[in-house]
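We now fix the convention by which a protein and its fold are recorded. Think of the row as the fold of the chain written in a discrete alphabet. Here is one such record, which you should read through line by line.
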Amino acid sequence: MTFVASVLTTSFIFWQAYSQAGAVAEEALANIRTVHVFNSIPATSAKYNDALQLAEAAGIKKGLMTGIGGGFTFMMIFTTYAVAISYGAVLVATDNLTQPGCMSDCYDGGKVLTVFFGVIMGAMALGQANPSMEAIVSARAAAFEAYGTIDRPSKIDALTTDGATLSSVEGRIELIEVEFQYPSRPHIPVCKGYSLTIEAGEKVALVGPSGSGKSTIVSLVERFYDPIHGVVRLDGVDLKTLNPRWLRQQIGLVGQEPCLFAASIAVNIGHGKPGATMEEIRDAAKRANALEFIQSFPLGFDTLVGDRGTQLSGGQKQRIAIARAIVKNPAILLLDEATSALDTESERIVQASLDALLNDRKRTTIIIAHRLATIRNADRIVVLCEGKVVEQGSHEHLMQIDQGQYRMLVDAQSRKSPRKASNAVMKLTSSVDDDVAASPTEIPVPVAATTSAPASTPSSPKKKKTANQVPYGRIWTMSQPEVGYLVMGSMGSLITGATFPLWGYLLSSCIVLFFNFKLTADEMKLEGLKWSGYFLILGATYCVGNVAQNYGFSVVSERLTTRLRALGFAAMLRQEVGWYDFPEHSAGALQASLSTDCALIQKMSADLLKNVLNVVVCLVIGFTIAFYHSWQMTLALLGVFPLMGFASKMRAKSFNPQVKEDENEGDVMAGALLSEAIGSIRTVASFGMEDVIQAHFTKLVAMAGADNRRAALSMGFVFGLSQAMMFFAMAFLFWFGGYLISHRIIVFADMFSVLMSLMMSSFGLGTAAQALGGMGKAKQATANVFAIVDRVPAIECITNDGVKPTLVVGRIEFQNVQFAYPSRPDSLVYKDYNLVIEAGTTVALVGSSGSGKSTAIGLLERFYDPYAGRVLFDGVDIRTLNLTWLREHISLVGQEPVLFVGTIADNIATGKPGSSQDEVEKAAQMANAHDFIQQFPEKYNTQVGDRGIQLSGGQKQRIAIARAILRDPEVLLLDEATSALDNESERIVQASLDALLDMKKRTTIVVAHRLTTIQSADLIAVAHDGRIVEQGTHTELLDIPSGLYRTLVARQVDGNANPATTTSEE
């Protein structure tokens, strides 16, 4: 039991250690663009390898404990044999070879043999159960943590049927003296005596600095958390007394970072209302301004959105998320920066749709917004600061408060755009209005104009290609450093393999001893002691051999698995970004391959050698003993071997079904779904998707389980048949042995020597055959892993090849570029795209959501290469440049900030590996992040959590900006870099970015929907239908009659006309 407990403990440590490595891999693969942008492949690989070392050490210790436990078990069995033989010899000698002898109930050889064979059969069963026991122990260790989660009572159980439900919902929300801090940061209060009442049907906007707790209110209303003190009520009822699922069914949430699932667009929208009809889904998409771009895809609503929605642009994802909330038709609507990712025209239309949604029934709405112009029509505006409500009232009321927080925020936003530009725009408004009225309500979005094309297209691969089989020699080559451990394990295997036929020979000698009445009583007792001693020696030898075998091969197996995982992970990381656009290369599927396939390859190396050596030595020694004692019986046994071999082959095949192309599809898809659901748990909880996810997961697991059940039935049948063949063979051999003895061809001792040695050899063979189960899966797993390892990326990012110019100016040129995403090669995103960006200039890319603005950044970062045309960097085709060098001179701040598990300092330092703490803090200061970092108890050592979940959206974005600033690049790419910041933070960060541009001659490309942020750009390029249709300065573009930019600006000014301007002027 001690050994079982030790194996259980080390198994648990092993799974716990590998889970850390798996988390690193999944995080990196899910955010592969960020890993590539910052040339973080070596650092990420090193982080993964460090985690693997812990798992490797635990796996080796587990192998050692298994060897000790198994060896000790058999040593005890052989010790029991020794005692039984010695004592049996004494009983037989006493009852049969002494005077006057036994008169009744005497012990003879038959009785002793009955006991022996009973023990033998039990020992054989115990030995055959050993691999299964190892599997059970490992499974218990793996299940320990899982059952800890399963058995943990949820503080807020979304699946419970307990709790009250209201017959009708008016929508009155009260937060009374609420105090709250996040469980992961219990020493940092977020809400400090927070009190607020929102009347039914009221439209309330929450504003305040980034990190002031606006989104926390949304989480409390959704009951993602409960307050530490105070109460949150709905229609006068404490939320804690309401059924959580029912509560969330009354609430629609559109978050700051839209979260979609790897399914079709229709399925994602339908998550808002289980059982929604296609007509309802289509209507919701239309009201969210999503119908047109959805219909532009070849598969329409059946288009797959990709892993976490990566196949759609930011604006498209947000509109799908809004449609998901619209189809729910909730009594309470929570909009957390719901339109921040949309371009001006889409925002105007979606805002109108949201307004219409609010007007079609009495609906309570809570809006969180940094862009104050979008909430000026709210019934009430609530200003938060440091966890408390500091001001509340209408826009007009708050603007009358001298030195008021809200007024200062509005004034700060008003100062962001140059006065002369604003005046010029205002003059245009009336003249453009006629053009706008005459034009369509939406600026057309081209069919192929997506930031990332959907994977669900006719050209997308539907099945994995069959991978080529990998030679055994290639695997063994990877284990060359462990040749000493291979020798140790091999010697142990030879010893353990030799044990079984020798066991049979010793046992046959003991059987003969008990019937040898020619001996005196003392001679029989001495012979009993002699054979008992041989069993003791055999047991000790087996124990040593089993320890050497398990420890030696565990070292080889675990180190090989570590190398394969490290090699496979590095190969995945170095693949071009376009490779990840296909569903079979999702983060969950790739992580499953690292976890499962690499582990299965052990059966192709150390496990294979161990069992082959066991088999060979068993056969050689067993048949040597058999031929020596009776060639006739041995040949007879060989005669029935084909029948036994056929049964054994069927048995092995049942253990080892050849893997088809889709063999592991259910397991892989289930793993990907689980990863996706956990990573998006807030969305799952908000839309009550627990049952849907669970049902889907159960269905996928059932797919894999069905194959396993069929294999189990087949295995059970052929196992029984093989066992029956064994008994038939033994029956024949006993008959044939009796025939030979009766004809005085052999003697009794010879027959049992043949039978026992070969029977025990078959026991060893059976154990080895059971351990060899799964070889077909191991071969396929090997092929899968090496298919990735051997794949040559279309864009090699880890290479010394390519030009590395000594002088970097920063001139960028797109020449006649044509481009389509690999997952949809038939739909062109760029059609003769031409743009010149002079060194040191700031160029803004504008256009409708999905017009391909971010595609330019993807091509410049060489996530993709154009199908035709060229992208030049300082006059050199970027395909000829060293990719690592190229990316070292570019920094990207994307629309959705990506942070990795680790400290704030680690995340900032990603921008410049090896940077000092002073450099990190300086970058944070320039990004307006230093102050809020200093407020944390751990300051720069504060853990950001999974995907930065411990920070607010604005805080995450500022960390991402600091990371880019630290690199001090020649080219800066800002893809909606300030969209998540509140107005004051945006103003300060924008000033910091401007100062960064003034530090040195720096080329900057800005992608923006908010046109006021790019009016001072040296050049504004307007994209439409895959081409640059207008370019010039802000003033020049405004002078183009009926120009696209002029139309966009006029609509934004019309939508964002701010009464605050006149107020401040008065």
